[in-house]
């Protein structure tokens, strides 16, 4: 009869091995033969044995959890990055904690406290606007070596990061519009203090210069990656006497807000004005018209950030390399129905 609360000796008895062999199967399975591993895991299933995580973490001096900082959990862009992270750590039986940095004061705690309270082994930060004093606290307490930036990063901070090739993506967008015949191309940016805004604007300006496209200050409109900023930009474009024939938006959300405003005021997309986004979130394929955009492999961003963090966690107290080149993830142009050749 199987005990109600099976212990490791019950597994050992069921498998016909020693308790040391069961422990080895759980902590270092590669040290055992395949037959022995299968024998032990079959016994674990049959007895219903559950690993005591608290005891295991105490032995290994690890918390068995990582923290992910997200700048806005309401933004659907982050869903696939979080999925990539969750799947990567799920394979290692590591819990993933998520904190929204949109209103850090509401949590009542500093991010370094998660380390100091032994609640996490490492942190992935998707927010390039992390307060500098928070980062300084991480460095002062010698835990910054277990922090990895993903998607966004902080200028002048020498911590590893995993990024999409935002500059190349912006170049692809402008070049695609140019190849279709557009010469009057506007750009709606992200928030001014965001690293993605600067990278995408840099790529856009470089490609415009290379193609010798006309530059007009009123065709570069400040946004903030949101639907609302797309609406505001659309109202500005509608009020122009000389309108652009195409608009490159710094995010898909901006593009949706823009298209809704333009079509709501009698303009047709793409017949009257073409629109291209950046991100390729799930709605892009189903919006009407379906959005041409620059695809970020968001799942890969999360998976690569997880792999990089695991390397640093497993290095233990080994000093982290100060200057590490960012890990770049390729982007690609996804052509759909929101872009066409200009009518004249």
TrEMBL record:
The keyword DNA-binding applies. InterPro entries: HTH_LacI (IPR000843), LacI/GalR-like_sensor (IPR046335), Lambda_DNA-bd_dom_sf (IPR010982), Peripla_BP_I (IPR028082). Keywords: DNA-binding, Transcription, Transcription regulation. PROSITE patterns: HTH_LACI_1 (PS00356), HTH_LACI_2 (PS50932). It comes from the Bacteria. SMART domains: HTH_LACI (SM00354). Signal peptide: none annotated. Residues 6-60 form the HTH lacI-type domain. The keyword Transcription applies. This is LacI family transcriptional regulator.
């Amino acid at each position: 009869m199987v005990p109600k609360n099976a212990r490791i000796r019950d597994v050992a008895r069921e498998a016909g091995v020693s308790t040391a062999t069961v422990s080895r199967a759980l902590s270092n399975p590669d040290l055992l033969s395949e037959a022995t591993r299968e024998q032990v895991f079959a016994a674990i299933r049959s007895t219903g044995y559950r690993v005591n995580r608290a005891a295991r973490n105490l032995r290994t001096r690890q918390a068995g959890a990582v923290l992910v900082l997200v700048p806005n959990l309401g933004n659907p862009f982050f869903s696939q990055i979080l999925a990539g992270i969750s799947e990567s750590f799920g394979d290692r039986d590591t819990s993933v904690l998520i904190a929204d940095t949109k209103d850090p004061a509401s949590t009542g705690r500093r991010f370094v406290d998660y380390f100091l309270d032994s609640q996490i082994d490492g942190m992935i930060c998707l927010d390039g606007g992390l307060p500098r004093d928070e980062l300084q606290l991480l460095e002062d307490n010698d835990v910054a070596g277990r922090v990895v930036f993903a998607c966004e990063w902080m200028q002048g901070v020498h911590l590893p990061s995993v990024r999409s090739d935002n500059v190349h993506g912006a170049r692809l967008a402008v070049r695609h519009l140019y190849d279709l015949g557009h010469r009057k191309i506007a750009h709606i940016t992200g928030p001014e203090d965001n690293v993605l805004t600067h990278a995408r604007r840099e790529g856009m300006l470089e490609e415009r210069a290379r193609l010798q496209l006309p530059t007009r200050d009123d065709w570069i409109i400040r946004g903030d990656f949101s639907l609302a900023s797309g609406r505001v930009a659309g109202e500005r474009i509608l009020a122009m006497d000389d309108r652009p024939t195409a608009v490159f938006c710094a995010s898909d959300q901006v593009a949706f807000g823009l298209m809704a405003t333009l079509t709501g005021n009698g303009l047709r997309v793409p017949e009257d004005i073409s629109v291209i986004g950046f991100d390729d979130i799930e709605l892009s394929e189903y919006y009407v018209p379906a959005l041409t955009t620059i695809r970020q492999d968001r799942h890969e961003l999360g998976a690569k950030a997880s792999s990089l963090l695991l390397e640093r966690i497993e290095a233990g107290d080994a000093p982290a390399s100060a200057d590490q080149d960012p890990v770049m993830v390729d982007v690609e142009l996804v052509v759909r129905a929101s872009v066409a050749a200009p009518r004249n």
